[in-house]
Design brief:
It is a single chain. By secondary structure, this protein is α/β, with parallel strands linked by helices. Helix 1 packs parallel to helix 2, helix 1 packs across helix 6 and helix 4 runs parallel beside helix 5. The protein is globular, with a radius of gyration of 18 Å.
């Protein structure tokens, strides 16, 4: 497999959700690899700090991911894009029975419709050149159903489906498609996850806190992208969530039983009956 960072020097790489977490880790890694960065997110000050940590060779294009009407102008300002990494996203921590329907709409807008809209605007230039690379950061939750994440799992499953299907249409025309499947990565995603009424969860213990660092995740991702890997699992070797990916293929019934037991424990702890 190609070494992390190999082949990115001088390439224009656009990372969304770059102000923190995996996105910031990717910005730093691509910067070290000599890429010309385009960094997007909502918080300008945070993007500026990430750009500085990435070596300063970055153009900042802040925007709200769900502002679909603003995207054509944003894409025009970005110019040539050799690699687009759709990373911006939001998670969830609430049981389905408690969750307002609007929360599902919000998660689908951010995690599915926004990256699809941006991809559709960037794709034509790549097809015209006959080359390019588009990646989407999904999740193990895009492969495995998990309690308190019905909306998040739905959006990430949809994201995986869209980009897997898109690959069938554009790979023979020179455009690579990679899906990125992180497990536990220690980022602020859990504290920002939406609860049943749509408010952020805030501080508290979460399994993602025990995951690999964002920089370690970025190294795995860059190695996979450099090799043209079509699906890139990201997590600690031997990690439980990584094992779930193998189990989904090899023993789906066993996986359903395992997750059902986990769900029962979660509902017992967090459900209305436990209140």
């Amino acid at each position: 497999m190609a070494a992390a960072g190999e082949g990115f020097a001088g390439r224009r790489v656009w990372v969304t959700g770059a102000s923190s977490g995996i996105g910031a880790g990717l910005a730093r890694a691509f910067g070290r690899a000599g890429a010309e960065l385009i960094l997007s997110g909502r918080k300008v000050a945070a993007l500026e700090a990430v750009a500085e940590a990435a070596g300063g060779n970055a153009e900042l294009l802040p925007f709200e991911a769900t502002d679909i009407e603003a995207l054509p102008d944003i894409v025009a300002r970005a110019g040539r894009v050799d690699l687009l990494v759709n990373n911006a996203g939001i998670s969830q921590r609430s049981l389905a029975e408690d969750t307002d329907f609007q929360v599902y709409r919000t998660i689908m807008e951010v995690d599915f419709f926004a990256p699809v809209a941006l991809t559709k605007l960037v794709l034509p230039q790549m097809l015209a050149r006959g080359e390019g690379h588009i990646a989407a950061v999904a999740s193990v939750a895009g492969k495995v159903g998990s309690p308190q994440r019905t909306g998040y799992c739905a959006a990430k499953h949809a994201l995986m489906g869209f980009f897997d299907a898109l690959r069938t249409e554009v790979a023979h025309r020179g455009v690579k498609i990679s899906t990125i499947v992180p497990g536990y990565v220690a980022t602020p995603i859990a504290t920002r996850a939406l609860t049943a009424d749509g408010t952020p969860r805030g501080e508290g213990e979460d399994e993602v806190d025990q995951g690999i660092s964002a920089d370690a995740a970025a190294a795995i991702i860059l190695e996979g992208l450099a090799a043209g890997q079509r699906e890139i699992p990201v997590g600690a070797a031997g990690g439980m969530e990584m094992a779930l990916l193998d189990m989904k293929r090899q023993d789906p019934e066993g996986l359903f039983d395992l997750m059902q037991k986990l769900g029962a424990a979660v509902v017992t702890r967090f459900g209305k009956a436990a209140a």
